[in-house]
Structure formats: C-alpha cells, structure tokens
Amino acid sequence: MLDKILTSIKVGELTVDTRLEKADFKADETVSGKVILKGGNEDEEVSRIRLTLLEPKEGSSENTDFGESDKVLQMYEIKSEQVVEKAQSVEKPFEFRLANFDLDKTTNALVLRTHITIGDGKDSEDEEEIRIQ
Q1: What are phi and psi for residue 104, nearest 5 degrees?
Q2: 133: Cβ contacts below 8 Å, ≥ 6 apart
Q3: Grouped pLDDT means (10 residues each) for the chain, 133 residues
Q4: CB of 90 within 8 A of CB of 78?
Q5: Burial label, 111 (beta-carbon count in 10 A; 0-12, 13-18, 19+)
Q6: pLDDT at 50
Q7: Which residues, 6+ apart, have CB-to-CB distance to 123 below 8 Å?
Q8: How far apart are CA 45 and CA 83, in angstroms?
Q9: Contact, 109 vs 101, CB < 8 A?
Q10: N or C: more exposed end of the chain, with fewer CB within 10 A?
Q11: Which residue ranges form the domains of the chain, and what is each CATH number?
Q12: pTM across the whole model
C-alpha cells in the first residue's frame, strides 16, 4: 500500500534542479550554470537534457488551451546519455550566449525551463527565472 502512495505522488523518481551562476543578465552575455540530476529509488536512463529560454505571455499556462503561449526565444541541448544511479547526484554544467531579443515592453524576466527525457518515457522539469537588464 505504501509503495502505491509513494508512486502516485512521484516520490522516489529522478528529479532535476537547475542552478544559474547568477540571476541578472544583459543581452549578449553568457549564461552559465548547472543541471543537477538527483536519482531516486531506482536507476534511471537519461536520454536528453533540453534548456528552453521563454518569454512568458500573460494568461499563458501549459495546462490550459486559453491565453497566449509562452514565446520560445532560444533552445540549448546538453548531450547526455547516461544512467543516473539510485540515490546518485550528477551535475551537468552548461553555458550558452544570450541572443539579442526583441522583448515585450512588459517583460521583466524570462524563464529558463529544463526538461529531462528519461528512457522509459517519464520526464522531469524545472524552471528558473532570468532577469534581463
């Protein structure tokens, strides 16, 4: 019974945490940080790590068909085909240059979404805010 409860709330699965070197950036600056993969109760095969820089749009939500979608500004992929072992922590450093964007005047910050594709079809995501000066 306890196993079913833990599985239903996704306790024990691989998790992802994205950490940026800093939160404030200028156009054309290099964004650097690391993606931390934390193994759960079993080994997981990671097939892809994708970072997507988004400009959030008012009223957008990935869980609704209403409102505008977030605008994708830039994508970066970390080559990673490896097994994250049970309870293991793996750090994947990354670095990419911010392009010069035409941002909406109401945009205060961008979102860096990290999407991990796991071999058996499960996924994990994390989001961090990036402020553009």
Answers
A1: -60, 140
A2: 24, 25, 26
A3: 36 82 89 92 90 82 59 90 92 91 79 88 85 82
A4: no
A5: middle
A6: 95
A7: 115, 116, 117
A8: 4
A9: no
A10: N
A11: 13-132 (2.60.40.640)
A12: 0.78
